[in-house]
Design a protein that fits this description.
By secondary structure, the protein is an alpha+beta fold. It is about 20% helix and about 35% strand. The chain contains 1 helix and 5 strands.
Length: about 80
């Protein structure tokens, strides 16, 4: 009986774990204002949140960003890298 309770307890954590966030760093090579996306020199494309002012970023900027681990890789934080 204790083994069953332990298994159920362990499985409950699988369903309550949040999605893990990812991080990336690189040079912006493309900004698509209509699609609200930025593409880094790695070839990865990230989606900017709707409230983001897309005029603040441009190709050539080196950025570090955090993103959701979703299909769109939605950016949650971005900062310039010196």
């Amino acid at each position: 009986m204790q083994r069953v309770i332990s298994s159920v307890f362990a499985l409950s954590f699988l369903f309550t774990m949040p999605a893990f966030a990812g991080e990336a760093e690189g040079k912006i090579v493309d900004v698509n204002a209509s699609a609200m996306t930025v593409t880094l020199d790695s070839g990865e494309t990230y989606t900017l949140p709707p409230e983001f002012d897309v005029t603040l970023v441009s190709p050539g900027m080196v950025v570090a960003l955090a993103h959701e681990d979703d299909a769109a890789k939605t950016v949650t934080d971005m900062e310039l890298v010196d």
